[in-house]
């Protein structure tokens, strides 16, 4: 999912133990090379990120191949009229099987665009700059680790691979060429590639999911933001806490790794928000009794 929020710089919690005498530090900025934000270091540069992506795509491949053999009665796309409290799913009927994926930071890593962002810290997101990237940046991106081989195996199992992206339909030729050029295709706009502008609703993906569901039984979806699964998660007024609880409990908790597959994206999107009162439960807070010493 591309740019539903301003560029986020939320730090990631590390797992390594560092001696007190050797504190970890970010390299100082120079006029030529500002420091890479920690979020980008993790997503685009770390072995942990690559391993996480490969793990997700292995799980997707295995799930889809097994689900295709079993032929489910219902898809994993929410039916019209669903709510976060009472979800219903589109029946499959005898439609052919498909997997639906987001593109950006789900199947594609936008290395060129993020490099340009990293070189200009603090710069606000600019839609026109992103538009220029869609038109000219096709050689400066790469597939997510594990995606190419997993999608190849899924197609070999007789399941269609469809992309539902908020890239723009007016740049359809460039966007199809970008996906095909890094081995994620074949894709064809209006058949296996759906873009913002193909249906009413702007960046909302539910209208495109509904149209895809008229043609296919969608047995798995893949994304890096909750909106890649349902626009209900991006409803105005839905608090950070309520959004997290909806994803992590109740009817949706069983779907993760079981029809819905999400990849980590700490760099941008609607997940990058919330103050201390949103992020830290009131009964799970601690203050060092020694204060700042």
Structural commentary:
By secondary structure, this protein is α/β, with parallel strands linked by helices. The chain has 9 helices and 9 strands. The strands form 3 sheets. The chain has a 5-stranded parallel beta sheet with strand order 7-6-3-8-9, with helices on both faces. A two-stranded antiparallel sheet has the order 1-2. Strand 8, helix 8 and strand 9 form a beta-alpha-beta unit. Helix 1 packs across helix 2. The protein starts with 37 loop residues before the first helix and ends in a 14-residue tail after the last helix. The relative contact order is 0.18. About 8% of the residues have low confidence.
Indicate the topology.
Blueprint: H1 38-45, H2 47-70, E1 74-78, E2 89-91, E3 97-101, E4 108-109, H3 111-118, H4 127-136, E5 142-143, H5 147-156, E6 160-168, H6 172-181, E7 193-196, H7 206-215, E8 217-223, H8 240-248, E9 260-262, H9 276-279
Parallel strand pairs: 3-6, 3-8, 6-7, 8-9
Antiparallel strand pairs: 1-2, 4-5
Features:
single chain; 293 residues; alpha/beta; five-stranded parallel sheet; two-stranded antiparallel ribbon; 9 helices; 9 strands
